[in-house]
Amino acid sequence: MAEHRSMQRAALLDAARSLLSEGGTEALTFPALAERTGLARSSVYEYFRSRASVVEELCEVDFPVWAAEVEAAMAAVDGPEDKVEAYVRRQLALVGDRRHRAVVAISASELDAGAREKIRAAHGALVAMVVEALRDVGHAQPRMAAMLLQGIVDAAVRRIEFGVAEDSAVITEAAVGMALRGVRG
User: Fold this and answer.
1) pLDDT tens across 125-142, in order?
2) pTM
C-alpha cells in the first residue's frame, strides 16, 4: 500500500511538471492532474491539500537535483574562474529540462508564504555554491557578487525561456562573458 501511494504521488508530481512546463501555473489544476494521472479528482486531494502544496513538494524534490547538477559541474573543473563559468553554464544548460521549466513557472506564480520561503532558501543554497569561488578570485564581497552573478543567470534564463530572437547558445556565451568580466573586475 505504501509503495502504491508513493507511485501515485510520483505520478502526480510528474504530471504537475508537465502541466507547468506546457502551460504555466494556470495549467496546474487538480482536474488536470486527475486527468493526466487517471485518478479521480477527489483522490488528488488525498495526496495534496492545495496547488501550493504541489508546488512546495516539486521544489523539495526537484531543486536539490538541479542544484546537485550545478555543484557537480563546478566540482569537475579547477580554478575559481572555471567554477564560476561552470556555475553559469550548467544552470543555463538546464533551462530546457522539465524540472527547470516547472521551477520557473512556479517562481512566477502566486504562492503562499511557506512556498515562497522554500524557493528562497533553495535559491540561497544555490548561490552559496559559488561564494567560495568568488572569494578565491579575490572578490572583496563574494556573497554580494554571488547574488549579482545569479541575477545575470536569472536574466539569461528568462531570455532563453521566453524564446527571444537570440539562440540559447548566444545568450549563454553573453552571460558567461558578462559573469567572468564582472568577476575579474
Assistant:
1) 888 999 999 999 999 999
2) 0.78
